[in-house]
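Work Package 3 (structural annotation) set out to generate three-dimensional models for the target panel prioritized at the project kickoff. During this period the team completed the workflow that converts sequence records into discrete structure tokens, so that structures can be stored uniformly alongside our sequence database. As a representative example, we reproduce one entry of 509 residues exactly as it appears in the project archive.
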Amino acid sequence: MSKTVKMAPRIPLEKAILFVLVGLLVAACGPREDQEDLLHVPEDFRTINEAIQAVADGGRVVVEPGTYGPVEFGVKAVVVESSDPSDPEVVAATIIEGGGSGCVVMFDSGETRETVLRGFTITGGEGARADLREGGGICVRDGSEPTIEGNVIAGNTAQRGGGISVTGGSPLITGNTIEDNTGEDRGSGIFVGEGASAEIVGNMIRDNIGGSGAINVSEEDTTAEIIDNEITGNTTEFGVGGVAVMYGGFARVEGNEIRDNQGRGDQSAGGITVHRARAEIVENSIVDNVKTGGVGGAGITVSGHHSADSSAEILGNEIRGNINEPSHGGGINVGMHGVARIEDNLIADNVAEGYGGGIAVVDPRQDLEGNDNITVIVNNEIRGNSLTGLDSGGGIGVRNAIVEIVDNHIHDNAASMATISGTRSGGGISIQLAGSEATIHGNLIENNQAGGRGGGIYVDRDTVARDAAGGAWPRENSPPENEPNNTYSGNTHSDTCGQDVYFRDTLCD
């Protein structure tokens, strides 16, 4: 009997081709599923931008050493990092280069903190937006909130934000070295403006040139937290060397080392300026900064304008060794339409040519609502400050201002040189010009020197010193009997009486 053989049904050619194509597609997708979460440059993609476009949301792009072109992120939550962000040699060798135009790295698509740039050298940018040329190295705009971590941002130039510009959103800028950038207007290192905010934490910001402030926080509704950074060796020819908070901005400046910066120009400091703005300045080391021209303090300046007030809380800082070559306030200057609370600080070894080797409160006037600006100086150690010019107030100089000076240790300050053309008065405290008032109680005032008069305190004509209850001291060349709370010791001056307290135009007995 013959055997029947069953034949498999024949598949039409077009169906066979379809099956092959589907199989190829499945094979291609299956093995590459993990690779979409982790892509390498240049192994998988030649450029960083291509890898960012291809990687899965939440994935990583790892970049090997080499030089790459400008980068633009998208809305993805993606980590883009060098092959070893913890190795300085790898960071130095993994370069994103701007080619002399625009921002080197752009964040403008609403990126979140999960979007991370880590471990690159970013250089050669010249800023975006033709009208402002912002962000030589990195631009953050339009509500973006990326994490910028562990990079070297160097050799970039812009009008605002030589290293980084933040004009929208709220990035975390942490652990970076931002150096040798140039800012032609505001922020040689970092600019924060146009209502943006930023967390600037634990960075090295050094040797940047130009721009008002190595960090500049400007304009209404703009805020920044500037915490635990090292801000050193920054210079400018027309503004603030270290940190500038200006034009309606607000910043909390805490735990930073602000050292060896140089400022120049009116209402500018070597260390920190708060101008027509508000700031909290807390537990910083503000040391060896220099002011080389214009009006304002060397360490800190707080000043307003006829159109805007300015205020600062200055709490628990070390303000030491700052030099004000042309002006008032070696350590701190509170000027026109400015007001400050100065509490629990060490203010030591600062030098000014004008009033106030340690602190100058000069012509702050009233605020814009007509209220008196009263600067409070409480519980500080103010020591070893001095003057180089013929103005007064080795420790504290008050001119056309109202202050409260309470519970301080004011010692070893000097307004000590006497010359043919004039003398310096008020080794510890000087109160000058009509309308000045100082409430002074609870202080230890010792070992201060004046080449003129008032080794401890000098009180000018038409000025008032008050006790704790608000009563005026009698104009006698000795501490008033009704104010026993101040303690005096070892103060010296060139006259025969009034070494502790001297009232001008009051003769010695």
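Confidence is low (pLDDT under 50) at residues 1-35.
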